[in-house]
Design goal:
Helices cover about 0% and strands about 40% of the residues. By secondary structure, the chain is mainly β. The structure holds zinc ion (ZN).
Amino acid sequence: MTSTLASSGAAALVPLRPGMFTVPDRIEAPVHLLGSRCRQCGEPFFPKRVYCAACTSGDMADVEFADSGEIDTFTIVRQQPPNSVMVPPYAIVRVRLDDGPSIQTVMATDDIASARIGQRVQLAARRLMEDEAGNTVVSFMARPVAT
Ligand SMILES: [Zn+2]
C-alpha cells in the first residue's frame, strides 16, 4: 500500500454520498445536512424528499439544517458488520437537530463515553478512508459538545 499523505493542507475531502451534507475544507469542521422542508405544513425531512410525507404536498424547499442537536437515543456497536468501514466500538445515535428532523448517525470510538440521552452534539466531518485517487472520503458523525 502506498502512502497517500496530503502534500498540502488543502487535500480534497470527498463525501461518501454526494448531496447529503455540506463538505467542509477540513476534517472535524462542522457539517450541515441537506434536506427538505414542506412549504405547506413546515415538516422537515432528511434526506431530501419530492413529496411531503406528512401532508403529501409537492411544494418542498431545499434546506441546509443546523449542525447541532441533541441525542434522542443510542446504541453501542461492539462487532464490525460485514463490509463496514466503521471500527467498533462505536455508537449509533439518533439526533434531533435544532431546526430539523431526527436523524441517525454515529459517534466514533473516542466519543462513545459521551453517548447518552440529552447529550448536545455537533455534526462534524470524519475521515472514513482514502479513495484510489488519494482523496480523503468523509462522512458526518456526531461529536459531543460541552454544555
Ligand atoms: Zn407538508
